[in-house]
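TL;DR need structure tokens for one chain.
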Amino acid sequence: MKIKDEILGKEVIDESGVTIGKIKELDLDFILNALKTMEIKDQGISGKFGWGEKKVLPFHLVKKIGDKIMIKGHI
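>> reply
TL;DR here they are.
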């Protein structure tokens, strides 16, 4: 799916510009043809070793998609 290829790996920031992480995986609803959730990979040193906290956010939190993905609010 083209949209999945474009979103995976993008950096996610909150409204204040704080980096949350990068998109690791997307949960797609093929019946509704919609994105449901996105799994965020922690960008810190713990994330590089697989120790980071797994964050799964509903896609309705996305405010803007560009070079980075901005989410509503703060995580």
